Amino acid sequence: MVLFVDPDAEVRTRRVATLTSRGVTVLEAEDAETGVIVAQTLKRLDVLVSEGYLKEGGYTGFDLRDAVKQKFPQVRTIFTSRYELTGYEQYFEGCPLMVEPVNESQLFSEVLGLRESGAAKPATAVPKAVMSAPVAVAVAVPDDGVAKAVLVEDDEENQPHSLAPKTDLGNYTVTEHLYAERDAETYLAIQRGVNREVVLVLLRPDRVNQPGALDAFHERERVKASIAHPRIAPLYEALEVGGRHFYTREMPNGRSVEELQEAGTKFKEKQLVDIIANVAEAMGHATGRGHHYRMLSPRDVFVDDEGQASIVNVFRPPGDKPRDFQADTKKFLIMLRLLADGPRARHLIDDLVRESHTWENLSSRAKELQEEFHERSLLKRADTKEAHDIKAAHERLSVPVWVLGLSAVVVVGLVTGIVLRNRSVPPPPPKPLQVEMVAIPAGEFTYQQETEKRVNNAFWIDKYEVTIGQYEEFLDALAKDPAKAKAYDHADQPAAKKDHLPDKWSDYLDAARTAGYFNNQPVNINCPIANIDWWDAWAYAKWRGHRLPTEEEWERAARGREGRVHPWGNDDKPKAANLGADYEPKGKGGTVDGFNFWAPEDKMPDDVSEDGAIGLAGNVEEWTATHANHPDYPDLPVPVVRGGHFALNRPANVLTIRTFADSPENATIARGFRTVSDTPPPATATAAESSR
């Protein structure tokens, strides 16, 4: 087990990934405070790798080393440094120092050597660094804040336990000793009358006669008995038998996190979110009612075969100091990180740690994430259902040869009946929307957080998302001049991609032209084009003589100069944007905003920005020109997607959230785009005119 601590996220991510690929279990932290939180959750730590100077005015890597050694005296430490540390040799205490830029192969070999052999060459002299040591590099004396944070609460006592297996206490028979704490011993037992396995917690006999100990134990029983929540193991009864004071409680279903860690069990993102939501809900329930607690340990959190989590009743009378909820949620999340299966799951945990939550806030955030996973599942189901419906329709529309002998009237009636499937006749096709653009003035604007100001040059952005009809013009132009078509391809477009036809394009277009149904949903040529990948969007923009917006330009167009919550302002208007509060994958939604899937671009006039752009909050999310490293795969730059869509039931931050496509080829039925121009467009123009 290795703990890697460095304030540089890029360096940390790269080195942790390399060590992990070599079979090393690595946990990471950005500063000493987080480092001790991580150490708090561990039962074993072999190697600490830490930058010597972690942050200005804060604890150093030397402080961290000293604190961690209180819990893990045998831990081996390697220091790295970006600074000149001549004169600080006494603080290394024989630990090796590697000065940046570090030879990473040597660093990894050193770590592996320490982990396997426990031996490392000490630094006999301080290597020279390019940067001078900052004034604040002077080593702080570790005080209670950093040192005591590592010590486990109610740490297990190494002494003989009081009850042997098969000991009877009233109606209970002890079967196994679990662990001992300072004041109590915990056992498994059988309640003989009902043959039920329980947990039996005994006040240690040597504490019974100590002043106040028995009263404190009874008060703890009363607190536990007062808490009722389906995810908190209830107290059954409190008893005194033969001078022994104890209570019994439920044994939670499943296996503890400690057992799961030892078994090497791993969980994907969605499973981890469910566990976090369950535990945070339980903790938030109790802390919201003013209950104090001891910190959750890996043996206190249980996960059953259905992936549902519950916790031991860790609540007790108030202590001398109030709990630090934000520090405690971090400890809990880091404890779960060892169960994370793959980069996506680990980065999910890391993001939640950085967000810094109370228990109630963590519960709310986890529920948001559960909703996001639900939305992803709905979209996948919709994509699958779409393919199935189209295939089934084609099969039904394949008319046998003998039918051709019937009258034309019968055939037409049959086919029409199949296509409409007992639906009401759709309205006639609408007049195609013309291409329009709105001006975004130059100037300062609020970006992402309220305190972040940026400056944009003037640009023009499409008033509407690109429609099916407008995209058809693009494809028609390419078909008329195949030799010129490649001129619109991005230089990095994969060779295997031969055209810019969306998946199921012919069925999609036929339905749109006739204002019919696609995927059991009404659609017309003024609905946004979807199911196109980033290469398609880029090529269309180039054909128009435009480009895709950067994500900063997109956000400026959507939120205006002052950073609005919604395009129209800061007030919630559930009917204004085509979002997912009323989304129903079976096709019966749309009760709030009027549309279940795609809305025609001119039918959501209230989803309008201060500059007049329509549909930035909802309908379909939109490709941007910006590429950024995928949070789950730090070495993989992918396009950033912005905005909400018809299935997204999360309107609060829809204009600021950054969605990372899995790849530029990742096309969905809920993703489209719009274009921007650095020069003003003609007063009126169709896509065909602007291509000449």
Explain the overall architecture.
Helix 2 crosses helix 9 and helix 9 runs antiparallel to helix 10. Helix 3 links the parallel strand 3 and strand 4. A six-stranded antiparallel β-sheet has the order 6-7-8-9-11-10, covered by helices on one side. The protein has a five-stranded parallel β-sheet with strand order 2-1-3-4-5, with helices on both faces. It has a four-stranded mixed β-sheet with strand order 25-24-23-26. It has 18 helices and 27 strands. Among the domains are: 149 residues, 3-Layer(aba) Sandwich (Rossmann fold); 83 residues, Phosphorylase Kinase, domain 1 (2-Layer Sandwich); 236 residues, Alpha-Beta Complex (paralog of FGE (formylglycine-generating enzyme)). It starts with a strand and ends with a helix. 32% of the residues lie in helices and 17% in strands. It is globular, with a radius of gyration of 32 Å. With 692 residues, the protein is an alpha+beta fold.
